[in-house]
# Entry
Amino acid sequence: MTLWLYSGLIALLGVERLYELRLSRRNAAKALAAGAFETGTLHYRFMTLFHGAFLISCLAEPWLMHRAFPGMPGLVALAFAGVAQGLRYWSITALGERWNTRLIVLPGAAPVMSGPYRFIRHPNYLAVVIELVAVPLIHGSWITALLFSVGNAVLLRVRIRAEERALGASWRRAFVGRARFLPGVRHG
# Structure
């Protein structure tokens, strides 16, 4: 894969993120009009800056450090990036109008238990974890993969705690014993 082709892929991911933000705004407006509330706005600002910086770093590292396409490892990373996208859109589809990039909760709404939520609590966040490793490694950008994976771990720790707290007792009861990220790996 040429660096130009990889740059095009990153540009497409940027366009996808803009689409997701538009969808998120639409879903947020509907939810807020129906009586939902928003929480976690401070960490959300950091998340949006972080993910924007990720896309920039995915481009900057291979261009500035003259990274070559790594061959088979790059193709494997591309496959994992594809899996991450599939999981992301499976999650978005399962949540429907309740999907959002922001932390918006509709009181009294039953937890979504379909799609990937049958198996794990946070499939969209698993998709992000996979993506932050795989996308930079498509073109050998291991520094970006490492730094943004560590930063994402910190952000997800804050985000998941805030989200699970905001979703409340009915959500906790519905997901008791369900793994956060990997089926069979239990956590709180």
The first helix runs from residue 3 to 33. The CA atoms of residues 66 and 143 lie 13 Å apart. The first strand starts at residue 37 and ends at 39. The mean pLDDT is 94.
